[in-house]
Amino acid sequence: MKLKPKITIADHFAVIQDPRIDRTKRHNLIDIITIAIIAVICGADGWVGIETYGCAKYEWLKRF
Fold this sequence. Notes:
Oligomer: single chain
Largest sheet: none
């Protein structure tokens, strides 16, 4: 049986262009998207919850 190729979140969202102005970017768009997805899966229900999750898991997330 042939396994399907693994597709990462970064691969899936690679076609999205970042509309933000370069000088105002503090984080990569793919990092924001990834943290938002993971936080919602873990129960975050809005941007405040997503931010709280990202701050709480900062040390763990930066390993990836």
